[in-house]
Each structure stands twice: as C-alpha cells, then as structure tokens.
Automatic annotation (TrEMBL):
<dbReference type="InterPro" id="IPR036249">
    <property type="entry name" value="Thioredoxin-like_sf"/>
</dbReference>
<comment type="similarity">
    <text>Belongs to the thioredoxin family.</text>
</comment>
<dbReference type="Pfam" id="PF00085">
    <property type="entry name" value="Thioredoxin"/>
</dbReference>
<protein>
    <submittedName>
        <fullName>Thioredoxin family protein</fullName>
    </submittedName>
</protein>
<dbReference type="InterPro" id="IPR013766">
    <property type="entry name" value="Thioredoxin_domain"/>
</dbReference>
<keyword id="KW-0676">Redox-active center</keyword>
<feature type="domain" description="Thioredoxin">
    <location>
        <begin position="8"/>
        <end position="81"/>
    </location>
</feature>
Length: 103
C-alpha cells in the first residue's frame, strides 16, 4: 500500500480509522476484533488496516514505532492515537462524540 492511497482514504471519509498491525501480532488481532465490534454501529466510519511489517516506509511516515497503533482521523486530521493498551470505553466515547458532532 502506498502513502498516497492512505491519504486519499483519509480525505474521502469524514471519520476513519487507520489501524497499523503486524503479521505475527496476537494483540493486533485481538484489539482489531474489539474495535471492529465497537464501530459496526457507526455505519459512516471507515476502517483500513495496514500491515506495518510489510509497509515499513508507510508506517514510518505516520511515526509508527510499536504495534498495534490505531489512528482516528476526523475531517482529515488525526484526532486520536492509541497503542496496545487503551481503554475501549474511552475509545467508544471519543468516537461517539465526534460521530454525533458530524452526523
């Protein structure tokens, strides 16, 4: 995946999540499932997963130095960056707040 494709994805959607994971990262898979479960009730939030191990330059361009990392973009701007250990309830509340402001 190229940086241009990710930038287009971010610009095309009002709220989106860019999720950086790794090939052999158990935490990445577990957190991804929980995040997908949370956002399924928000139909206008778009989700993309990027394998940081296979896309090292892309990960570096977003300052990704550990995995997993979840980036929430609202109107093209990064509004939240969370790593391996984060509160899912806080995450849901943050998404809910932005979602209700925009839609």
């Amino acid at each position: 995946m190229r940086e241009v494709e990710v930038e287009e994805f971010i610009k095309e959607n009002l709220i989106n999540i860019v999720y950086f994971s790794g090939s052999t990262c158990g935490a990445c898979d577990a957190i991804k499932e929980k995040v997908l479960h949370i956002i399924k009730e928000y139909e206008k939030i778009k989700f993309i997963e990027i394998n940081a191990v296979e896309n090292k330059e892309l990960a570096a361009s977003y300052n990704i130095f550990s995995l997993p990392i979840l980036l929430l973009f609202v109107n093209g701007k990064e509004t939240l960056r969370v790593g391996r250990y984060f509160d899912l309830l806080d995450f849901k509340n943050t998404i809910d707040r932005y979602y209700n402001l925009i839609f």
